[in-house]
Design brief:
Helix content is 41%, strand content 20%.
Length: 116
């Protein structure tokens, strides 16, 4: 109600009270102090009611990070497989001894290509 009257959103913030973690909110009329155990119990219940299993950030991110690493490793293997790239139609292959390579804007080009 106080948030509606003042036009500002009030929500719980993490804080310390007598050396213990609490979730705390202050409004114009009162202060709310929720101890850590109570907060997590009701958070887990609330999430479960929405079909969400509570997990830590690491528990959510570990599988994503592992998938990202697998993707990067697969990409590295593909980039290193030059025989694969030589067999792709449209890939230009120029014998190194005949190529006139130079750098233009940080891109190595051969004699027939001009970057810009």
């Amino acid at each position: 109600m106080d948030a509606i009257k003042t036009g500002r959103q009030v929500c719980l913030m993490l804080g310390w009270i007598t050396s213990q973690l609490h979730w705390i909110a202050h409004t114009d009329s009162d202060s709310i102090y929720v101890d850590e155990m109570t907060y997590h119990r009701y958070l887990k219940e609330h999430l479960a009611s929405q079909g969400i299993e509570w997990q830590t950030w690491s528990q959510y991110m570990r599988p994503a990070e592992e998938a990202w690493k697998r993707q990067c490793e697969a990409e590295d293997r593909l980039r290193a497989n030059l025989d694969f790239w030589r067999a792709i139609p449209g890939v230009r292959i120029v014998p190194r001894c005949k190529a006139y390579a130079h750098s233009m804007n940080g891109v190595v080009v051969d004699e027939g290509v001009r970057g810009g």
